[in-house]
TrEMBL record:
UniProt GO MF annotations: hydrolase activity
Coiled coil: none
Residue ranges annotated for the HIT domain, each copy included: 41-109
RNA-binding recorded as keyword: no
Name assigned to this protein: Diadenosine tetraphosphate (Ap4A) hydrolase
Organism this protein belongs to: Neptunomonas qingdaonensis
UniProtKB keywords: Hydrolase
Pfam families listed in its UniProt record: HIT
Length: 149
């Protein structure tokens, strides 16, 4: 574990809006607490990173690998018409990549998901179901956190 990972702390806004599911080799895997959409976020565990180019070349490649794997699994698992992957950072500067499985007829289709609908919080039962589903999809890829927010 390098110094940047040791100093890593999840931004409080992400911590408040998301459920921590586990860790890929580089990134923390979060579930956005909004049942309107299948919406996951990857946050590289590197202190101070606000842009992809702030990562080492090796970490940049690892992030793309993790993002691609997550997107493919989400597309299959949630029968996505389109995967939206975004790195904005205007509200939360900490480097993070949104992964949203989109469907024709979802509350924001075909526009962006931000600000279209009030968030609908997951129930504890729904979180447990999603956690189980994700664990079965990413077995061996992610070290999972047991039932913590």
């Amino acid at each position: 574990m390098d110094e940047l990972e040791l100093e890593f702390e999840l931004d409080s806004r992400l911590a408040n809006d998301c459920i921590v599911l586990g860790d890929f080799p580089l990134s923390r895997l979060l579930l956005m607490n909004d049942a309107n959409y299948p919406w996951f976020i990857l946050v590289p565990r590197r202190a101070g990173a606000t842009e992809i180019y702030h990562l080492s070349p090796q970490d940049q490649h690892q992030l793309i690998d993790e993002s691609s794997e997550l997107a493919e699994i989400m597309a299959d698992s949630f029968s996505a018409r389109k995967m939206n992957i975004a790195n904005l950072g205007n509200m939360v500067p900490q480097l993070h990549l949104h992964h949203v499985a989109r469907h024709e007829g979802d509350p924001a289709w075909p526009g962006p998901v931000w600000g279209k609908q009030p968030a609908v919080r997951y129930s504890e039962e729904q979180i447990a179901q999603i956690r189980k589903r994700v664990e079965s999809m990413l077995v061996g890829e992610v070290s999972f956190v047991a039932g913590k927010k």
